[in-house]
Amino acid sequence: MFDISTFPQADAVRRAAQLSQEDYKRLYYQSIEHPSSFWAEQATRFLDWSTP
After folding, report:
1. pLDDT tens, N- to C-terminus, the chain (52 residues)
2. Rounded distance, CA 7 to CA 19, Å?
3. Are 35 and 42 in contact (CB under 8 A)?
4. pTM for the complete prediction?
């Protein structure tokens, strides 16, 4: 068996993160509970479509 060590985040890393742990969990659960609407929203926010 082995030990798993965890270390606290440095303040600089926490401030530089784009998402807080709470926001990450909220988005994760939304993606699991309502995947179609979650991914549709993500696509509208982050994808740009163009016709060749």
Report:
1. 778 888 887 878 777 778 888 999 999 999 999 999 999 999 999 899 888 8
2. 19
3. no
4. 0.60
Q: Report helix, strand or coil for 18.
A: coil
- The rounded distance, in Å, linking the Cα atoms of 2 and 38 is 37
Under a CB-based contact definition with an 8 Å cutoff, are residues 31 and 39 in contact?
yes
Backbone angles phi, psi at 10, to 5 degrees: -70, 145
Report the SS3 class of residue 7. Answer: coil
Q: Any alpha helices (H) in the chain, and if so which ranges?
A: 11-16, 21-33, 35-46
Specify whether the CB–CB gap between 38 and 29 falls below 8 A: no
Total number of residues shown for the chain: 52
